[in-house]
Write a structure and sequence with these properties.
By secondary structure, the protein is of the alpha+beta class. The protein has one domain. The chain is 41% helix and 10% strand. The chain is built from seven helices and six strands, in the order ααααβαβββαββα. The chain has a three-stranded antiparallel beta sheet, with helices on one face. A three-stranded mixed beta sheet has the order 2-4-3. A hairpin with a 4-residue loop joins β3 and β4. α2 packs antiparallel against α3.
Length: 181
């Protein structure tokens, strides 16, 4: 009787971890985004700003950073809302003010982020509908942080009134941003 070689049959053996659907965190998204693999994250919402320069900002880099910022806003929305609400309680002496925070508005601003080449004095600027990022040398941490910072402007009201920029910066500081001024 001639020798018959058996063929190997590959099976789709899956482990428990492969069988369940995996939900990515914003840090995993950043690590899988080209050019953003080495972002330094602290315990806070914002990345750790290091004293690094980087390449000039381009629309291509902005588009890559936008996806990371959108994941941050979606994943940490409850933390952001809680920061605005706790600030309002402190400001109005525990009188339970009405606080409205629109994360969807922040995400829309992130989607409308464009390169701004006329002014190199600012990192970024927002008007509540669009974000402009300056075409200066900026590290990836600074780029993600700037888009996130600008997206948190003009998204909340306390008792139906807009929050001033100084108070918005205090809220961002409570979320872990390290401002230079």
């Amino acid at each position: 009787m001639p020798f018959v070689r058996k063929k190997r049959v590959r099976t789709n053996k899956t482990t428990k971890n492969q069988n369940t659907e995996h939900i990515s965190t914003y840090k995993e998204i950043a690590n899988s985004t080209k050019g953003f693999q080495k972002l330094h994250w602290g315990k806070a919402l914002f990345p750790d700003y290091r004293n690094l320069s980087g390449p000039k900002v381009s629309q291509k880099r902005i588009n890559r950073a936008k996806s990371i910022v959108k994941y941050i806003l979606e994943e940490k929305s409850q933390r952001i809302i809680k920061a605005f609400e706790s600030f309002a309680k402190k400001k109005y002496y525990q009188k339970n003010p009405t606080t409205e925070v629109s994360i969807l508005r922040a995400i829309n601003m992130v989607e409308n982020t464009t390169l701004y080449t006329e002014d190199e004095c600012l990192y970024g600027y927002s008007d509540g509908y669009q974000i402009w990022i300056s075409a200066i040398k900026m590290s990836n941490e600074a780029l993600v942080g700037t888009i996130l910072h600008e997206s948190l402007h003009n998204i909340a009201t306390i008792n139906g009134k807009d929050i001033c920029e100084k108070d918005e910066h205090a809220i961002m500081k409570s979320l872990g941003e390290q401002l230079d001024y």
